[in-house]
């Protein structure tokens, strides 16, 4: 892993603009490891209104990786250049990715129009990598048409993806019937598109109808028509329909108010991280072990 600061950040940026996958990989590592100069580099990145971000989220076992793999195929067939950030669960002890590089996407790793990077959540509770915003900005400096962010399926807290993606796809499976009934409004309302994957399984049609019923204005808070697409990602069934639905959603112009809210969310998140920079789990663990702390509440009052 490259951790030494480059001699010339601007030269690195130029290489990224030219689509050098080696330069992109190196820059992502530099930003992820907070190498000196990275903040100034990010501040100087060009504004990009062209690259569109597709968020794919949903509960574990829904087939998000297989769906992402199939979606990459549609984008490549349409002569699109695509970057993929796969956010994997991480070990609570060493914060490394548990899944590592995605075997299902192996055919794309050497494709010139596809860039794939696996990331660990590193303990982040929202299903995203703690530097996901910064890493996405680096990718937006490269000549990609789309960036796909596939988030770890950790549940309700995944609503974070809605603040980052231009379109959010929530992937479910027929067996998730009871789960959907008990879903909080948040996860239901972040979806721009619902996908019922593994739709060849029993009760898929019933689940599909019930989900559409839940999304009707009489039952759902928004009157916006949310597409529900049936897919069998492992067989590439329904993927063309999903690609078309994503394209329609991306053509809908975001209101200025929404853009400002998303920018405010990003600013809040980045400032929160900056102010918490001096506090790490490792440092807290060292103090707790050294002082044999047993009452966490009295301990944290030191930092108020």
UniProtKB/TrEMBL annotation:
Entries under InterPro entries matching the protein: GTPase/Isobutyryl-CoA_mutase, GTPase_ArgK, P-loop_NTPase
GO molecular function, one term: GTPase activity
Stored CDD domains: MMAA-like
Keyword Flavoprotein in record: no
Domain of life: Bacteria
Keywords: Chaperone, GTP-binding, Hydrolase, Nucleotide-binding
Pfam families linked: MeaB
SUPFAM superfamilies per the UniProt record, alphabetical: P-loop containing nucleoside triphosphate hydrolases
Family: Belongs to the SIMIBI class G3E GTPase family. ArgK/MeaB subfamily.
Name by which UniProt lists this protein: Transporter
UniProt source species: Niastella populi
Record lineage: Bacteria, Pseudomonadati, Bacteroidota, Chitinophagia, Chitinophagales
């Amino acid at each position: 892993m490259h951790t030494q600061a480059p001699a010339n950040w601007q030269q690195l940026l130029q290489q990224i603009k030219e689509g050098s996958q080696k330069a992109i990989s190196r820059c992502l590592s530099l930003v992820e490891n907070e190498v000196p100069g990275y903040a100034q580099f990010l501040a100087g990145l060009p504004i990009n209104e062209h690259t569109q971000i597709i968020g794919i989220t949903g509960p574990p076992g829904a087939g998000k990786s297989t769906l992402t793999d199939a979606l990459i195929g549609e984008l490549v067939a349409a002569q699109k250049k695509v970057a993929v950030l796969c956010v994997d669960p991480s070990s609570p002890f060493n914060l490394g990715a548990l899944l590592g590089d995605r075997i299902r996407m192996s055919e794309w790793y050497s494709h010139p129009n596809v860039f794939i990077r696996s990331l660990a959540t590193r303990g982040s509770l929202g299903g995203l990598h703690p530097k996901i915003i910064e890493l996405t900005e680096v990718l937006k400096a490269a000549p990609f048409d789309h960036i796909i962010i596939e988030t770890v399926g950790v549940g309700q807290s995944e609503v974070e993806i809605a603040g980052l993606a231009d379109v959010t796809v929530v992937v479910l499976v027929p067996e998730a019937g009871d789960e959907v009934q008990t879903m909080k409004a948040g996860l239901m309302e972040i979806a721009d598109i619902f996908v019922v994957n593994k739709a060849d399984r029993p009760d898929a049609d019933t689940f599909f109808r019930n989900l559409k019923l839940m999304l009707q204005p009489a039952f759902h808070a928004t009157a916006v028509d949310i597409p529900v697409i049936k897919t069998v990602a492992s067989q590439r069934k329904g993927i063309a329909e999903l690609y078309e639905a994503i394209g329609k959603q991306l053509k809908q112009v975001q209101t200025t108010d929404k853009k400002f809210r998303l920018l405010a969310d990003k600013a809040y998140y980045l400032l929160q991280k900056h102010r918490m920079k001096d506090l790490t789990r490792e440092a807290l663990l060292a103090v707790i072990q050294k002082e044999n702390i047993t009452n966490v509440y009295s301990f944290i009052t030191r930092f108020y």
